[in-house]
Amino acid sequence: MKISNNSSTITGFILLGFPCPREGQVLLFVLFSVVYLLTLMGNGSIICAVHWDQRLHTPMYILLANFSFLEMCYVTSTVPNMLANFLSDTKVISFSGCFLQFYFFFSLGSTECFFLAVMAFDRYLAICRPLHYPTLMTGHLCTNLVVSCWVLGFLWFLIPIIVISQMSFCGSRIIDHFLCDPGPLLALTCSRAPVIELTSSTLSSLLLFIPFLFIMVSYALVLRAVLRVPSAAGRRKAFSTCGSHLAVVSLFYGSVMVMYVSPTSEHKAGMQKIVTLFYSVVTPLINPIIYSLRNKDMKHAIKKLLGT
Fold first, then answer.
1. 155 and 103 in contact (C-beta within 8 Å)?
2. Helical H runs in 19-138?
3. Closest Cα to residue 198, out of 241, 152, 163?
4. Closest CA relative to residue 180, chosen from 16, 302, 4, 300
5. 226 touches 127 (CB < 8 A)
6. Contacting residues for 165 by C-beta, under 8 A, at least 6 apart
C-alpha cells in the first residue's frame, strides 16, 4: 500500500464517525455501549437456550443459534472500534486495522446473506416436504450448510479487499464514516480503478440478489403450500414459524440493498451512516426479540434458562 499526502507520511485513516461536541460523544459512547451489551446478551441467550434445551436440538434452532453467533461477531466488527473513537481525540485507525475491519465486516455480512438463504431453505423443506424433512435435513446436511455459509462468506470479498489494500492513496486520509467502507476508501485512491469498482459492484449485486431471490422463491412455495392447509390453526402455525425469519430478511435486505449494489455511488454521508448503522447495529439488537417473541418454544427455553 502506498500513501502520499503532500509528501508526508500518513500513519492511518481518520474515521470521522458522528461529529459532535465532547458531551455528545460521551452520550453516544454510553448509548452504543448499552446497545452492544444488550445485543451480546440477547443473541447469547438464544445460543444458550438452544444448547441447554434438548427440544431445540433441531436444524431450525441449530441454524438460529449459528445465526445469533454470527450477529454477535458482526456487531463486534464495528462497535468496539466505534466506542474507542467516541473517546478518542485523533480518531485514527491504522491501515492494517482499517482493512481488517473492512474484511471482517464484509465477510460476516456475506455470511449473513448465505445464512438467511439456508434458513429459508430449511423452512421450505419443513413446510413443503414435512414427511421427508427428517430424512432430507439431517444433522450431516445441516452441518455442511453451516460450514459452507461461513467458508463462502469469508471468501466472497477476499480478492477485491486484498487488491484495494495494495492500491495507492493520495490527498486526504479522512473517511466520513464510522467504519472502513469501500466507497470512501476508493474515493481516496490516487487514480480511479474502474475494474475494482465494477468487480466490487458485481460481487455485491450477486451476493445480495441471488440469496434474496432464493429466499423469495422459497417463501412463494411455502405460501402456496400453507394456503392449501385445510385448518386455520395449521396455517397460523406455519405462518408463525416463517414470520420471524421474513421480518429479519426484510430488515436486513431492505437497508443493505440501498448501500452496496453500487458501492461507489454518491450517497450522502449522513444517510450512508444511518443506513449502515441500522443493518450493522440495530438489526442484530432486535433480531433476538423478533425470534423470541414469535416462537413459543424459544420463549419457553429462554424463560427456563433465566429461571422464570
1. no
2. 22-52, 59-76, 79-86, 95-128, 133-136
3. 163
4. 16
5. yes
6. 1, 95, 99, 102
Taking only Cα atoms into account, the Rg of the chain, rounded to an integer number of angstroms, comes to: 21
Q: Which three cell numbers stand for residue 66?
A: 449459528
For the beta sheet containing 174-175, the strands, ordered from the edge strand earlier in sequence to the opposite edge, are: 92-94, 12-15, 174-175
Residue closest to 106 by CA, chosen among 145, 62, 142, 73 = 73
Residue pair 39/83 in contact (Cβ under 8 Å)? The answer is no
Burial call 195-211: b when 16+ CB within 10 Å, e when fewer:
ebbebbbebbeebbeeb
Q: Which amino acid is at 193?
A: A
> pTM higher than 0.70, yes or no?
yes
What is the signed CA dihedral for 219, 220, 221, 224, rounded to 10 degrees?
A: 120
pLDDT confidence of residue 166: 85
Contact 157, 107 (CB under 8 A): yes
- Residue 72's Cβ-side half-sphere holds a number of Cα atoms within 13 Å equal to 17
Rounded distance, CA 276 to CA 280, Å?
A: 6
C-alpha cell at 1: 500500500
Which is nearest to 46 in space by CA: 244, 302, 284, 308? Answer: 302
Average pLDDT score over the chain: 85
C-alpha to C-alpha distance for 46 and 123, rounded to whole angstroms:
19
Q: How far apart, in Å, do the first and last CA atoms of the chain sit?
A: 55
Per residue in 31-89, pLDDT (tens digit) is 999 999 999 999 999 999 899 888 889 999 999 999 999 999 999 999 999 999 999 88
